[in-house]
Amino acid sequence: MSETTIGTSSLADPAARRALMSGVTPEPGSAKRDPILKVDKIERRFGGITAVDVEHLEVQRGIITALIGPNGAGKTTFFNLITGFDKPSSAGSGAHWEFDGRALDKTSASSVAQAGMVRTFQLTKSLNRMTVMDNMMLGAQGQAGENLLKSVFKPLWRGQEKAVEEKARELLARFKLLEKKDDYAGSLSGGQRKLLEMARALMSDPKMIMLDEPMAGVNPALTQSLLGHIQSLRDEGMTVLFVEHDMHVVRHISDWVVVMAEGRVVAEGPADTVMSNQAVIDAYLGAHHDTDLGDDEVLSESALEEIEAEVRADEAAHEKHEGDKP
Amino acid sequence: MDTILDILGAVIREAISPGTAAVAIAVIGLNLHFGYTGLLNFGQSGFMLLGAYGFAISLVHDIPLPLAVLIGLGLAFVFALVLGIPTLQLRGDYLAIVTISAAEIIRFVGRLANLKDLTGGAQGIQGRTYQPAFVDLSFFGDGSFTLVPFNYTDVADGAGWVRALGGLVFAACVVAVVVLVRRAKRADDPAAAPAERRRGLVHKLLVALIVVIGLYAVFFAMPVTYGRSGVNGWWVRAVAWTLVALSTLVVYLLVRSPWGRLLRGVREDEDAMRSLGRNVFAIKMQSLVIGGLFGALGGMVYVLASTVQPDALGRQITFFAYTALLLGGAATILGPVLGTVLFFSARILIRESARAYVPDSVMSTQQTEQFSFIIVGVALVLLVIFRPQGILGNKRELRFNV
Amino acid sequence: MRKGLVGALLLSLLVPLLLLSGSPSANAATLCLPKPDETGCISGTVGSRAEPVAGVDVVLRDAEGNDVETVTTAEDGKFSFAVSEAGEYFVVLDEETLPDGLEQLPPRSAIAGPDGSVKVAAKLGTSVSPIVEVRSEDYDAGGESFTDQIAQSVVNGLRLGLLLALASLGLSLIYGTTGLSNFAHAEQVTLGGMVAYGLVNLAGINLWLGIVVTTVICAASGYLQDRLLWQPLRRRGLGLTQLMIVTIGLALAAQYAYQFFVGASLQKVVVRDFGTTTFGPVTLTNLSFLAMGVAIVAIAVVGYVLVRTRIGQATRAVSDNPALAAASGIDVDKIIRLVWTAAAGLAGLAGVLYALVISNGIRWDTGMQILLLLFAAVTLGGLGTAFGAFVGSIIIGLVVELAGPLGAPGDLKYAVALGILIVLLLVRPQGILGRAERVG
C-alpha cells in the first residue's frame, strides 16, 4: 500500500518548469522532452460531423497542461477517446496512443484507469446513494476484499480496509470533506462533489489525472481551493491535463496550453504566447477578441476572500433547501 | 370469531409454507441483482425453473441428492452466463427484455411435448417421482408435531382469553419492534450524537429478543400442526427456512464487504466505476450469477413440497418477487424475507376475508382469488409511488435519485 | 366427416345392445347433479351437438394421472362424471372405442393434459364442461406441398406482423418519448378485445361501428391514464425503473380484473362466419384481409403524421431530446399525452383485430401472450424508433409463422422469435435501425 505522495517534485519550482518547456516549439503537435502521453491520428466522426481529428499530440510529464477551445471543439470527446470511454472512428487505420510507454489503442476504460491515467467528468459522477467515505474507498486499487471469494471472509481484507480508510481520511481532510464522510454523496453541493471526485481519483495514486472542466458549476470560493489542489498535485510530481473554459483559470495555473477548435489542435504553447496567437483568437474568441483573456486581478486573494464569505452563506442556505426536499 | 381464527390460521400456514420460503430465497437473489447492483432481472422465474428442473430430473434419474442440487445450480450458472454476455454491456432495459424472454423460452421448452420423457411436458414432473430422496433424509421421526408444543390449549383449558392474550403480546411486540427500529434509524443518522450510535449492539439484541417473543406468541395463540416428516411436513419447512437464513447470512457477508461496495458503485454510476479502473462487466456478471444461483436454490425448495410445473414458475412469480422485494425494502438485508412473508400472508388474508365475508352472489370463490391478485397489483403500484423504500428501506437514500 | 357420421349412427344402434348385455368395461353415462360442498360435475359431449358420437369410452383421471372412472357416451354423445373432491382432473377418450376413421382432436395447449387429455378444474357445487373434439383421421394438416405451406405461412406471418406492428408502434412511441418500457401495453391490447366483445357480442352493435367505438374508448383510456397517473408521476420525478414497476403492477391488476369481470375463458367478438377466400395456395378468412387492410391504413396514417405533420415532428423532437424540445417551445406534456392516447388507441385496435382473426376470441391473457413478441419487435427494430418497430414486427410475425413449417415444434414458435432477439442483441445491440449511442 503506497502512501499519498506528499514529497515535492523538482518541478515545483516555476523557473524549472519554464526551463523545461522553453525548448519546445509552440506549434501544434510539437515534441516534448519527456512525454507521458503520446497521441497519433485519432479521429472520431458522428454521422457526417468530424468531432475530433488530432494528428499528433504529446503531453509533458510533471506539469499542468490545459486543453482549451470553444464549445464543440471536441475536448470532451477527445478525453473520452483517450480514456477508453469512446472508440475512435480511425481505430485500426493508424490511430495509436500510448501512456507512459504503454499502448492504449485497444484498452477498456477500466484498464486505462488501472494503467495510472484517471479522469473526472464534466458532469460530476459522484455515487449519490453511497456515503462520501464509500465513494473514496472505491477509488483505491487492488483491494483483496473486492474478490468475490475472499469477500466473505472478513479477516482476509480487514487490515487492508483499515489502511485504505486511513488514506481516504487523509485525502478527505486535505480536501476539507472529512466531516462529511458519513453523508451521502448526493447531499453534497456541486463544488464539494467536484472535490470528492478529484479526491476519489487520487485514491488510486495515478500518474496522470485528467480533469474535465473541474471549475464548471463551482462557486468562486471553491475555485480558489480547487486551483490550489491542482497546483499542489503538480508540485508533488503528478501530471495534470485539464479541460477548461475559464481563461483566468487557465492563465493562472497552466504551464502549457493546447488549443482545440473544430476537432483539431490549432495551437500549443505557454499561456501568454497562446493567448496572443492570432489563430487562437480567430478560432476561439470570435466576438470577444478585444477583451483581455486572463485578468489575474479577479483572482487576487483579498477579492476572493470577500466572495468566499458570501458564498458560504449561500451554500448554507442551499444545503438547508436540499435537506427540506422530500 | 371462529371465522377470524380460521382466516388467521390460513394466513399463518401460508406465511411458514415451503413455497413462501422458496420465493423468499429467490427474492434474496433478486435483491442482489436489483437492490444492490441495479440489474433489471425480469427472469428470476427462469432461474427458479432451471434449478427445479435440474434438481428434479436428476433425482428422477437416481442421481444422489447433493449432485442433483449442484446440477440445478450449474444450470442456473450457465443460464446467467448466456444471458449476461450479450446484455450486460448494454443499457438496463435490454437486460429486462432479454431476461424475461429467456425465462419464457425456458418455460416453453419445458412444456414441449417432445421433451415429455424428460420434463413431463406441460403437466410437469410429479412430486412423488423425486421427493422421496429428500423426504428419506428426515431425522424428525414420524407422527405429527405442533408448533409450539406449549400453547394456549395448555393454559386454562384453552380459554378464549388466553389466545387473545397471545395475540395481544404479539401485537405489543410488533409495536415495540417498530418503535425501536425507527429510533435506531434516527440514531444511524450521522447527525445523531455518537453516544446514541454506540448503543447499536445492545439495541440489536433487544430487537432480536422481542422478535423471538413475538413469534412465540403467534404460535402460542395459533399453534400449527403438521407431520414431522413426509412431503409436506415440518422437515421440508425446517430445511426451507434454514436455507432462507443461510442465504440471508451469505448475502449479508457479501454486501458488507468491499465486493458489495463494488455492486453499489455499479448501481450508482457505471462510468464512474470505469473511470476508477473497475471492470463493470465482470462485477455485473458476478452479481447476476450469484443472484441467479439463489433463484435456482429457491426453485428447488419450491418444488420440494409440490410438483415441477412450468406454468407455476412463469413470469407471475418474477412479478410477485419484485412486489415482495419492494414491500420489504430493496437493498436491505432482511427486506426480502420480511417482504415475501408479508406479501403471501396479505394475499391469503385478502382472499380468505373476501371468501368469508363477501357473499357468493357478489364474489364467487374463484373471484376472491382474482380479487386478491387485483389488490396485489394495485398495492404494487401504490407502494412504488408512495413508499418506494419499502418497510425497511432508508428514505434518506431515495432522495438522491439517479 | 361422413364416415364418422355413419360410424356414429351404427354405434348409436349398438349402444343399447351393449347396455343390455351389461358392458363390463364401463358404466353407462348417468346424469350428474352438482351439490354444494359435496359433488362437482364434469360433463360434456363427444362430437358436436349436431353430430354426437355415441358409445365411446371416456376416461377420467385425477391430477396424479390415475384412472378414476370410465363412462361410455350415450346416444346423444353425452358423458358425465360426479366427483367428490375439487381439483384438477383430466378427461381422455379411449381411442380403441372411437368409431373407425375418427380420432380425438389434440386439445389447445392451454387445456392440454398428458396423453392428449383435456384438463378440467372441477369445483364442488358446479358443473364444468371440458371440450372434447373429434375429427376424421384423413384430416391431414401436412397434405399440402411444402412450398404451399411456406406461401400460406408467409401470408399468415404478414398478417401477424401487421397486427403486431399496430400494437408495437404505440409501445415504441411511449418508449421513445418517455423512456418507459410499458409492461401494461399488453393489457391495452386485451382491453381492445374485451371492449369489442362487450360492444359487438354482448350489446349487439354492428362490428364495424364496434371497432371504431372500441378504438375511441381505448384511446380515451390512454388519455385518462396519462392525465391521472403518468403525468402526475412524471411531475413527482419518479425514476424510470419505478415507473416500469408501476406498469407491472397495473398489468397484474388488469389481468386479474379481466378474469374477475369476464371470466377465464375465451370469448368471441363475433359469432358470425365471414367465409374464406383462396388465392392459389393461400387461404385466409375474409375477415383477415379486412384486418390487414385496416392495419395497413392505420399504420400508414401514423407514419404520415410522424413524418409530415408538425405534431409528428414535435413528437420526434421529444423522442430525440425532451429538454431541447421543451426549450424550443414544444409542449412536451401535451405531446406525451397525445402519444399515450394514440398508443392506447392503436393497441385497442390491434386487440380487436387480433381477437377477430388470430386468436379467434379474447381472453384475459391474450395480450400477455404477445407482449414479449411486441418487446422483441420493438427491440429488434431499435428501441424507440417507430419505423424500426414496424420492421421488427413484420420480421417477428414472419419468424413466428414460418418457424412451424421450417421445423420448429409448434409450441416453440414464440420461443424462436425471442431466441432471434437475443442473438441479434449479440451482433447489433442497437437494433436493426437504431443508432449507436454516444457515450459520456
UniProtKB/TrEMBL annotation, chain A:
SMART domains per the UniProt record, alphabetical: AAA (SM00382)
The UniProt record lists the keyword Transport: yes
This protein's UniProt keywords: ATP-binding, Nucleotide-binding, Transport
Pfam families, per the entry: ABC_tran (PF00005), BCA_ABC_TP_C (PF12399)
InterPro entries with a match to the protein in the record: AAA+_ATPase, ABC_AA/LPS_Transport, ABC_transporter-like_ATP-bd, ABC_transporter-like_CS, BCA_ABC_TP_C, P-loop_NTPase
SUPFAM superfamilies tied to this protein: P-loop containing nucleoside triphosphate hydrolases
Domain ABC transporter per the UniProt entry, residue ranges: 37-287
Keyword Transport: yes
GO molecular function (one): ATP binding
Protein name: ABC transporter ATP-binding protein
Species of origin: Nocardioides oceani
Upper classification of the organism: Bacteria, Bacillati, Actinomycetota, Actinomycetes, Propionibacteriales
UniProtKB/TrEMBL annotation, chain B:
Subcellular location: Cell membrane
Entry keywords, A to Z: Cell membrane, Membrane, Transmembrane, Transmembrane helix
Transmembrane segments: 15-36, 42-60, 67-88, 158-181, 201-222, 234-255, 288-305, 317-350, 371-392
Acyltransferase as UniProt keyword: no
Membrane protein topology class: Multi-pass membrane protein
Keyword Membrane set for record: yes
Protein name: Branched-chain amino acid ABC transporter permease
Organism: Nocardioides oceani
UniProtKB/TrEMBL annotation, chain C:
CDD domains: TM_PBP1_LivH_like
Membrane spanning residue stretches: 160-183, 195-223, 243-266, 287-307, 338-358, 370-400, 412-428
Domain SD-repeat containing protein B per the UniProt entry, residue ranges: 47-102
Primary location recorded for the protein, binned into one broad class: membrane
InterPro entries tied to this protein: ABC_transp_permease, BCAA_transport_permease, Ig-like_fold, Sdr_B
Signal peptide: 1-28
Key words, A-Z: Amino-acid transport, Cell inner membrane, Cell membrane, Membrane, Secreted, Signal, Transmembrane, Transmembrane helix, Transport
Location within or outside the cell: Cell membrane; Secreted
Bilayer disposition of the protein: Multi-pass membrane protein
Family recorded in the similarity comment: Belongs to the binding-protein-dependent transport system permease family. LivHM subfamily.
Name of this chain's protein: SdrD B-like domain-containing protein
